[in-house]
Amino acid sequence: EISQAKSRYQFVRATDRCSVCGDLLLSREFYLFSCTHKFHTDCLIEVLLPHLGPARRRRINELQTILKQAPTEETVSTFSGQTREEQAAQELADIIAGECCFCGELVIRDIDTPFIEDALFDQTINEWL
Fold first, then answer.
1. First to last CA, the chain
2. Of 85, 103, 122, 128, which residue is least crowded by CB atoms under 10 Å?
3. Secondary structure letter of residue 25 according to DSSP
4. Of 8, 16, 3, whose CA–CA distance to 35 is shortest?
5. Of 25, 58, 21, 43, which Cα lies nearest the Cα of 97?
């Protein structure tokens, strides 16, 4: 399966749109999954966060903070040879791009989670009646 994945490719057209926000995909950084879903990085994070545990959410926020900071003179790690920002970007990609947030295991695991809380559902029904 891995050898087949290496020979697969997809084209990104200038007209392709993010599966979350609908904006043009090429307008900012994005991820493309083998299922053909496409997401801007920030949209992907927004969809994933509610499904992640507190430790992963906290780590994503820490990594985003590192990536938003201006690079400093001493950013190169002597152990890996990567800058702190490169390490943060790679770790963030590992967390958010492991699987598609629309059709991966994460969504399947949460399939019976209601879209809205029971109290809000009851309130909405009462407003409609």
1. 53
2. 128
3. G
4. 8
5. 43
Handedness of CA 110, 114, 117, 119 (dihedral sign): negative
Tokens of 70: 């201006």
Q: Of 33, 30, 53, whose CA–CA distance to 42 is shortest?
A: 30
CA distance 117 to 113: 9
Where do we find the tokens 């994933």?
A: 48
Opening angle at CA 20, ends 11 and 104, nearest 5: 75
- Please give the single-letter amino acid code of residue 89: A
Q: Whole-model pTM?
A: 0.74
